[in-house]
Each structure stands twice: as structure tokens, then as C-alpha cells.
Amino acid sequence: MIQRIQTLFLLLAVLITSSIVLMPVIHLISFDYKDVFVYITHIPLVPKATLIISILLFCVAVLLSLVAVFMFKKRRLQIKISYFSIVFQLAWVILNFIIGQNIGKLIKAEMITYKIGMFLPIASIILIYLAIRNIKKDDDLVKSVDRIR
Predict the structure, then answer these.
(1) pLDDT surpasses 90 at 38
(2) How far is residue 21 from each of residues 18, 42, 57, 91, 148, measured CA to CA in Å?
(3) CA dist 36 to 39, 45, 95, Å?
(4) Where are the domains of the chain?
């Protein structure tokens, strides 16, 4: 399991995505130079439902990547779960982009800066894609060996 490169890609994706909890996602500066930081667990000036949706998308993405690590015997299912993880991470990034724009309008922000927490899911998506490619290679290899038998 661990010796497979796709497992390492998936584990690295889980670690990267999980580290977002500790980092700011968005930094807004209003005209009166008041700083507003947006973290995944603290999104000011938005309804609680939006915060809950954001946290749920994030948690589902992390859990799907983690589950995919342990599905190494069922390669097709592992690929599907990995694709769903990519979809949830993209949805999380898009939702947070929209949240940043809306908070910026609410406080009349002079500047909206997207921090590293917003871009780490992109690195995680790339790692998951690399894992999917390697899972497909493994699957093709197993199929070719089965044909030889």
C-alpha cells in the first residue's frame, strides 16, 4: 500500500488539504484600513449556513482523499472517490472565492488578497490527479497480466 506512488500522492494531498485549517484563506483591507482575515473555521459577516457549507465541503474533500488511500484493492472505486474529492475541493475554492467577494462588498474593501490557504487545494487537486493517473496505470498493468494468463 505505502510503496505505491499513488498512495503517497493521496497522503500528501490529505496533509496539504488538512493544513488549510491553520492558515488564513482571505485577507481583506477596508478603506479605513481595518483588516479582516477569513479562516476556514471563522468567516465573519456571513450567515452560519454558509460557514457550515464551507466546512462540510472541506471535511468531505479531506475524508474522500483519506478513504481513497485505503481503497487500494478496489482501483475503480479509488479513482471515482478521488474524482469526487477533486470536485468537492473545487467547490470549496469557488465558494470561498464568492464569500471573499461578498465580504469585500459588505465592508467596501479596498483590497482583497487570497492567501496560501486558498491555493493549497489547487496543489492537492494536482496531487490527486497524479494519483489517479498512476492508479489507472496500475489497473492497466493488472489487466495486461490477466490477459497473458
Answers:
(1) no
(2) 6, 10, 13, 17, 48
(3) 10, 10, 18
(4) 20-142
